[in-house]
UniProtKB/TrEMBL annotation, chain A:
InterPro entries: ABC-2_transport_permease, ABC2_TM, ABC2_TM_bact-type, ABC_2_transport. One of its GO terms (cellular component) is ATP-binding cassette (ABC) transporter complex. Pfam families: ABC2_membrane. Signal peptide: none annotated. Belongs to the ABC-2 integral membrane protein family. This is Transport permease protein.
Automatic annotation (TrEMBL), chain B:
It comes from Hydrocarboniphaga daqingensis. Residues 9-238 form the ABC transporter domain. One of its GO terms (molecular function) is ATP binding. This is ABC-2 type transport system ATP-binding protein. InterPro entries: AAA+_ATPase, ABC_transporter-like_ATP-bd, ABC_transporter-like_CS, ABC_transporter_ATP-binding, P-loop_NTPase. Keywords: ATP-binding, Nucleotide-binding, Transport. It comes from the Bacteria. Gene3D superfamilies: P-loop containing nucleotide triphosphate hydrolases. SUPFAM superfamilies: P-loop containing nucleoside triphosphate hydrolases. Pfam families: ABC_tran.
Length: 255, 304
């Protein structure tokens, strides 16, 4: 390993250790929350017809819930790590180290992906006890998972960079991440929406992330899978470009 | 710029403003390899700002800095591997244990197991061995300060900058740190020390820069700096607390519990003339003492 690679691997390991030490909070808790949603909604709306033929409402719900939880945790992992080190002041140790913008980017995003793999696998296995899901196209599932978790990890990194305190991150979560996640068709098919909201949903990148992910399981979705992949990849590329630009210029990080 | 690798640090035309406040107004100096260098100045002089720019935490508006010939921006990886900085603020990561933290820090610099013995040696020398497996959050302020120092040195940098390491620490720890810094210097490391304790700087540093309101006010060897101002002090205690004759009043530097300190310029105010003036005024001298100016006097003179 070159010294640069070792620096990167160290940062990646440190970021993984950070959530690993508190798996109860970082993996178990979000999985339980999502399962509660599943129980309540499946119970309350069990009589309801699903959007797709031959698929129960509960089945329909599971991929969206997994994806929503993955997105929230990807965002939380990068943003909380960065804001904590900023507020505590220990970010200087990393800033003084010979690590470049790419190493920062890759280490933070990969660590978030590791957490998301755990969250998604735990949810998938836990929900098997309620509703066994079909797996129509594993590659689509994988691609949508990586693009979505990656995108939200990058958005979390951006939030961490521009924020100076925990409140800023909370505002990001409450006014940006959560509304977009809930309005993305987790609990319903957008075909059931009135025209305005139907159109608005198609401008929400989170909608494509969830819709494409769902396609991977059922082979049915609201929009063609390639659209979902293109929208998610485009969003990932855009967010990454913004994030890299911030890291390279030292935006809000170097006084 | 004179990117001579014989200099540990080359600082050229560095300016930095925060809004309308000019924290650094074109700072320029070099520190040769192997020196024990003092960076002094009153609060707010810009010392920490300059150190943060060297460390890559703050961007200068203009100017360049090189560590052993490597530019801190253009060649930041090289420059940072050669540099260890102990920040002024007592920052720490509450999440990790002392030894783990130090190993992680070494990893950032590309160092692995080969520096683990060095980490343990530092823990020993900084009297932290018993705390190696303690969480950072459970340490006292003095212990955190020592970990901060160890953290700056995990990658064995040839250039070390310490920003007020002895501020607010007890006498015993201060002595440990002096010993530690002297050892580093003796082993060939270039040490740059910022401190408020001028006796400390006078004792430890072979060369000194005095920074005031963002400008370098003095830059010379400690010995030259001390000789630069040709004056000395005469402390007299007068019998029966008699008043000082009119002619000597302008020489008074300070007064305290009955004794008076006079500042005498060499050549202009011979000591004999003071005694003559006192005798002529019929004042008896009870006690008398002289002293050479110390760094504190010169510091006050330069940063007035
Ligand atoms: N991040 C900042 N924002 C605004 N002003 C700052 C900032 N950092 C330092 N300053 C100002 O710059 C000046 C120099 O500060 P500093 O370098 O900390 O001085 P010193 O370390 O010599 O005490 C001070 O007036 C300080 O208030
Ligand atoms: Mg300072």
């Amino acid at each position: 390993m070159t010294p640069n690679q070792r620096g990167f691997v160290t940062l990646l390991k440190k970021e993984v250790m950070r959530f690993w030490a508190v798996l109860g909070q970082t993996v178990t808790a979000p999985v339980i929350t999502a399962l509660l949603y599943l129980l309540v909604f499946a119970q309350a709306l069990s009589g309801r017809a699903s959007a797709y033929d031959g698929i129960s409402y509960t089945e329909f719900l599971v991929p969206g819930l997994i994806m929503m939880t993955v997105m929230q945790n990807a965002f939380a992992n990068t943003s909380s790590s960065l804001i904590q080190s900023k507020v505590m002041g220990n970010l200087v140790f990393l800033q003084m180290a010979p690590l470049g913008p790419w190493e920062w980017f890759a280490a933070y995003v990969l660590a978030a992906l590791v957490r998301c793999v755990l969250v998604a696998s735990a949810m998938f296995i836990a929900t098997l006890f309620f509703v066994p899901l079909p797996v129509h196209q594993p590659l689509a599932i994988l691609a949508m998972f990586l693009l979505s978790a990656g995108s939200l990890a990058v958005v979390g990194l951006i939030a961490g960079i521009v924020s100076q305190k925990f409140d800023h991150i909370a505002a990001f979560t409450n006014f940006f991440i959560n509304p977009l996640a809930f309005l993305s068709g987790v609990f319903y098919s957008v075909h059931a929406l009135p025209p305005f909201w139907y159109t608005a949903s198609h401008l929400n990148p989170f909608f494509y992330m969830i819709d494409g992910f769902r396609f991977g399981f059922f082979g049915h979705a609201d929009v063609p899978i390639l659209h979902s992949i293109a929208w998610s990849a485009g969003f990932f590329a855009l967010a990454s470009a913004v994030c890299m630009r911030m890291l390279i210029t030292g935006y809000k990080m170097k006084r | 710029m004179t990117n001579s690798p014989s200099n540990a640090l080359d600082i050229v035309g560095v300016r930095k403003s925060y809004g309308s406040l000019q924290a650094l107004k074109g700072v320029e100096f070099s520190i040769p390899r192997g020196e024990f260098f003092g960076l002094l100045g009153p609060n707010g002089a810009g010392k920490s700002t300059l150190i943060s720019i060297i460390a890559g935490l703050v961007q200068a508006d203009v100017g360049q800095i090189a560590v052993l010939g490597h530019d801190t921006v253009g060649d930041f990886r090289h420059a940072r591997r050669l540099l260890g900085v102990v920040p002024q603020e007592l920052v720490f990561d509450p999440f990790f244990k002392v030894r783990d933290m130090l190993r992680i820090q070494a990893g950032y610099y590309g160092a692995g197991r080969e520096v683990w013995p060095w980490i343990d040696e530092m823990l020993e020398r900084l009297d932290l061995t018993s705390k190696a497996n303690t969480s950072m959050r459970a340490l006292s302020g003095g212990m955190k300060r020592r970990v901060l120092i160890a953290q700056a040195l995990v990658h064995k940098p040839p250039v070390v900058i310490l920003d007020e390491p002895t501020a607010g620490v007890d006498v015993e720890l201060r002595r440990t740190l002096w010993q530690f810094m002297s050892d580093l210097h003796r082993q060939g490391q270039t040490v740059v020390l910022t401190t408020h304790y001028l006796e400390e700087a006078q004792e430890m540093c072979s060369r000194i820069a005095i920074l005031d309101r963002g400008e370098v006010k003095a830059l010379e060897s400690t010995r030259q700096l001390l000789r630069r101002h040709p004056f000395r002090f005469l402390r007299v205690k007068l019998a029966g607390n008699a008043a000082l004759p009119e002619a000597l009043r302008e020489l008074v530097a300070s007064e305290s519990d009955g004794s008076i300190e006079l500042k005498l310029e060499t050549g202009k105010h011979p000591i004999g003339s003071v005694f003559d003036a006192l005798r002529d005024a019929g004042v008896a001298i009870e006690d008398v003492q002289t002293r050479d100016p110390d760094l504190e006097d010169i510091f006050v003179e330069l940063t007035r």
